Structures
1.
Amino acid sequence: MGKNYIDIENDHGEQLRYRKHVNGRGLIATGAKVHPDARVEAGAYVEPGARISAGARVASGAWIDSNALIGPKATIEAGAHIGPGAMIGASAHIGVRTNVGEGARVAPGSRIGDDETIREGMAVTTDRKGFLLAA
């Protein structure tokens, strides 16, 4: 049986150890917390300090940066990047290749489309169709 982890050197020359999540085989860094009922697909990365709640789904190619929080039943689509310290609310949907900036907040149930950018520190709420609502 092969090893269940991989070591990767980051941009600062530090070695980080990632384990393969039991539900999807995505790579979870030491120090990240991922609920066993979450699905992190192969090719997705979850950085140290990030937290992924029960029922959340992180698609292949997505990157959950350090200290980000993914709420229950949230969906992060392929190629999306959730920045450091960003928070994605329960049942929110983040589209393909969407970038959520550092410290940004996406309200529960919000739907962010494909190829969107949520700027650093921004708070976003949408209706069920993805239309932005006034804060």
2.
Amino acid sequence: MLPAASRLTRAEEFASVIRRGRRSGRSRLVVHLQIVGDTGAPPRAGLVVSRAVGGAVVRHRVSRRLRHLLVPRLASLPAGACVVVRALPPAAAATSAELGSDLDASLRGALRKLPARPVTTGGAP
């Protein structure tokens, strides 16, 4: 289960990450990643599993698997990161191992596409 502080909950947050974030996808899922202005905030994540994936039972199974896979990966994301994982129809027939490898590859791809952030030091200019 994702901790409450690590969840995207509002539609505006999802829309912002999907519209403005960097995207990287595989055959079973697409990851959208955005660094928000508050870089002291913990990374947050949300899932989108539409009816195209399958019926309610299948969608909930895919959601549970993705949520379980996301929890340990949040710690490796930079502070202030917002992630939306969108499941595609082939995710319904995928194993957890296949979803995990697609999630890892998509996260790496989205992180690579982020603009380089300037390094700031704590001292005076």
3.
Amino acid sequence: MKIGDHVVYVQDGTKGVIVEIHDNLYHIIWEDHFSSWEHGERLIIQEAYP
């Protein structure tokens, strides 16, 4: 995953965009404009989401 990728939070299907990366932590701006840092294993690239 890289900055600018559209991702989905696997636990609830929320969509967002990666804006910053530090090691395995990804800073995401979510569709409701909330932002958070998430571990990579909790995210999936949107195109791969069923």
